[in-house]
Amino acid sequence: MIFADSAAYDRVWRSGALSREAVCRIFGIAPDRITNYVEFDPALAIKFAFRRLRPSGSPGDGDVFGSQQYGPLLDLEVPPCSEGGLQQQSGGGGGNLSRVGPGV
Fold first, then answer.
1. Among residues 47, 40, 37, 36, which one has the least CA distance to residue 6?
2. Which domain holds residue 52?
3. What integer pLDDT is reported at residue 82 of this predicted model?
């Protein structure tokens, strides 16, 4: 997910709304299905990938290109910032988390 500005990126990152654990909960998957989770500050992006249940294009595959998986994110709610700013929630990342960027 690429954010329009650093304020939006920071708000989502600090809230933990797209942490590794949150992604598992949102998509209803086990943690071991996440193959990649990266918070990439220079691009204001959070990227995650998860292992398919069947190979792309095989019988029963509903998304050959793997690009139609964003639906559950449409209802994602991110808590508003408080006056003192957000603190990253426990579980905001963890596991195979990579945070890439200046000063990280």
1. 40
2. 6-79+89-100
3. 64
Q: Per residue in 55-93, pLDDT tens? A: 888 998 888 877 778 888 998 999 887 644 444 444 444
CA–CA dist 36, 99 (Å, integer):
12
Number of domains in the chain: 1
What span, in angstroms and rounded, lies between the C-alpha atoms of 13 and 19? 7
Q: Is residue 1 part of a domain?
A: no
- Amino acid found at 21: E
Question: Residue for token digits 């408080």?
Answer: 82
Query: Is 84 a domain residue?
Result: no
Tokens representing 73 are 């994110």
DSSP 8-state code for residue 2: B
* R_g (Cα) of the chain, nearest Å: 15
